[in-house]
Amino acid sequence: MYKPEPIDTSEIKLPDSISELTEKIAENVHENWSASRIAEGWTLGTERDDVKKTTPCLVPYSELPETEKEYDRKTAIETLKTIIALGYEIKKQN
Question: The pTM is what?
Answer without folding.
Answer: 0.88
